[in-house]
Amino acid sequence: MSDAAEIINTVKGQGDIYLPKTIQRNERLARGLVPKLARLAGKLPFADDLAAAYYAARDPLTPVKAKAVLFGAAAYFVMPADLVPDVVVGLGFTDDATVLATALSVVGMHVKERHRALARKLLALPEPVKDPG
């Protein structure tokens, strides 16, 4: 989509910021992320990365294109239709992990320590131990 078409296909989001409609749609889908993460957090080795990506996507300081990628990854996680159904033992979340890893490889520099701290708080994870040396 061209930049002009993207501007035409915008809606007013939180904080009166205009966002492309696809970001708004993915943000609506991603709202189901927190309840699903709460149910599955102990079973997902990438739960903290997913929650941090979600918080980065909701951050007004994150660039719009990065938001689109991060919301897309979060929305894929909560979508009921998956490439590999989540109920398949051993393989169910591999596609979700791959989508998240790809998203973080592209826009991971926008996931800041403040987002990771919020993710740890949400998932009741301990703070990392700082190296004294």
Automatic annotation (TrEMBL):
Residues 66-101 form the DUF1232 domain. Signal peptide: none annotated. Keywords: Membrane, Transmembrane, Transmembrane helix. It is a multi-pass membrane protein. It is found in: Endomembrane system. GO terms for cellular component: endomembrane system. This is DUF1232 domain-containing protein. It comes from Hyphomonas polymorpha PS728.
